[in-house]
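To assess whether the prediction recovers the assembly geometry, we first specified each molecular entity separately, as shown.
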Amino acid sequence: MSEPHRVVIIGGGFGGLYAAKRLRGAPVDVTLVDRRNFHLFQPLLYQVATGALSPGEIASPLRYVLNQGRNIQVLMANVADLDVQERRVILSDGMAGYDTLIVAAGARHHYFGNDHWEDTAPGLKTIEDATEIRRRILLAFEAAEREADPARRRAWLTFVIVGGGPTGVELAGAIGEIANDTLRYDFHSINPAEANILLLESSGRVLGAYTDKLSDAAEKSLIRLGVRVRKALVIHLDDEGVTAKTDSGEIRIAARTVLWAAGVAASPLGAVLRDRARASLDRVGRVVVEPDCTIPGHPEIFVIGDMAHFAHQTGQPLPGVAPVAMQQGRYAADTIVARLKGRTLPAFRYADRGSMATIGRGKAVADVFGLRFDGAPAWLAWLFIHLMYLVEFNNRLVVLFQWAYNYVTRNRGARLITGEARRPEKPGELRLH
Amino acid sequence: MSEPHRVVIIGGGFGGLYAAKRLRGAPVDVTLVDRRNFHLFQPLLYQVATGALSPGEIASPLRYVLNQGRNIQVLMANVADLDVQERRVILSDGMAGYDTLIVAAGARHHYFGNDHWEDTAPGLKTIEDATEIRRRILLAFEAAEREADPARRRAWLTFVIVGGGPTGVELAGAIGEIANDTLRYDFHSINPAEANILLLESSGRVLGAYTDKLSDAAEKSLIRLGVRVRKALVIHLDDEGVTAKTDSGEIRIAARTVLWAAGVAASPLGAVLRDRARASLDRVGRVVVEPDCTIPGHPEIFVIGDMAHFAHQTGQPLPGVAPVAMQQGRYAADTIVARLKGRTLPAFRYADRGSMATIGRGKAVADVFGLRFDGAPAWLAWLFIHLMYLVEFNNRLVVLFQWAYNYVTRNRGARLITGEARRPEKPGELRLH
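The predicted structure of the complete assembly is given in tokenized form:
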């Protein structure tokens, strides 16, 4: 009897997790490799960054989620390299041989060549990013409360969010809520509602990928929460603020809290695939894939999710959102099983069920199943869909309860300032991760 | 009209928080100073360390908890020194004048002169300690899964808890549960139930402060969870294990995870009070206080909670537990209000309603209201009392729900390995906090 077909999956995000779940019970041996021991529900990460939810409520241990699959092994390890000739993944402390490889290592923030901005303006990709951003937002109000000088106090109360996509819009809206509602009665020397929340978007339009109607509705909701949207391109960042180019010239904004939601780049594993398997990368490092999500010349290597540049459906690459990754994960799994039976599947097709974003308490904009709507119905749809996709039942109930409680009391209980400062004391001590 | 009487409270633990709450609406101006922005429910910290609860579920923002008191101000700041002549607290970035001072800065771990053990064997006092311990416990199982050498694998699967008081017993019991229940189906190469969990207690008796019957019941519960209790005094600690003195000579235990629950010492503010106000300290740095919880010669300075050595009731100092701190906090507040009316209060008396500890699923030992019991009734009493004292209603419901869910599914959802390693790579890089 031959050994079972070995599938290695790199990454336990939406793509990797859904591929692994789909392969449960299939006649293959699956090894899922991730640096972290948990799956993270990234669409709600901004709620951790703004104190509405706790990290544990949007994360699930990978071993637990996958422990029903006796053919699935979880390996907590760093991938150092790929050996595509010998078909093995080189880990920092070992090796994992494969017959089929699924690369689903996701994306990280991208500073357009200004990587040194990361410490000044953190992005939001990991649990640590979220607690760091939460720490900075809350500490800024604390510092403002203690600051006697009006100009310096103003800088502490100025929050700049760079980038007007869904993450930037949701972060800005949540900070607006914190300033107007959550902290309303908490301070003596300052009025948190006087916070200056600026969303800088180079195109001038928030949610540029949505329809004009929804984009306008989002902007109106933001304005109601005290957020100002400016058409501006950041050209310089430091601990004291932001310099940006606008239509009326360069402006300088004194701000002690700057958050980055402007760009993502694919995992560095993309470059490894370029070097080892002659894959082509696009401008942001994504791997250009075939209609079946594999790379040219290597039908045994799938690249899916945020790492993949899949342009066969509309001519444009599919967006880096969870539903694409989930569907590609299931597709890769199905393709592997079909091949073992000597069959092939038709090309991958993304079933776009729409997209949505929330902007503050009871407000959202949605574009789902061909319907476009905003306000309370969109918000309820948003709640429902996000709860449904939380992997663990436990998390669904806790998050539902926390939301209901936060909604009624206008409170955010997870307002903990924890951890050490990541902002370096001296320029030489950058600690990135 | 004269200025209102100024009360400064140092510390937002049980003592400081209950003093502040009691002064709500009193004719005094209250400033509560804490390094952190939240009150931490320390009795449940071991449940964060063992993945049953999330940090946010046992912490409450101090500003929120106290924002109903318009005469109460919260200051997030470090105390650098005290000027008892001029009656002011010197902060690292400012000053706070007082008419009455309440010092309630708590305690930290104590390594009996071996402070360098802290990085090898962390104690459990802060949220960061708890997530660090959680990280180490979970990473140990991950490392064992990948380790081929049987002796090294055994060292990864060996957990040593030093100290058999309530924290040590609860930690050991929880690790026993993790090994036997939580992780049962999660690994392929190892059987987590083979973990070697050792509780080292120099007296040989766990929960030595309880009655013999309860102490025996606790030990039996621990044994049922696979924990071995040994009479042993730790004399050396390093990254590879523990050396301890036993009745039959020195032993060496190869263990990669060592947790410290053996001793606490009062906050360094005790030494400041000794130097500035001639206070006497006991062996573990606690400030010896008068029957009214003030220090001799300074009726305007109260010292309460874990920092106070109060021996007027039984001849023995009161234990460092939450109920003592709460009652002393209320007493200090009442004394301040009485004095403003020209009255005095009788000496402080601790109303001891008993103590309890849980050991694994559905098990506890209790000694409350003069009744001693163990098993399920003790566990239910333990649940009820701990929920009751959680400061926020929201937290009570979420914790109740998490417990019920964990109980039914035998799962612990908050099993996140987060943060960077605190264990230093090189000996010179100790990062204490």
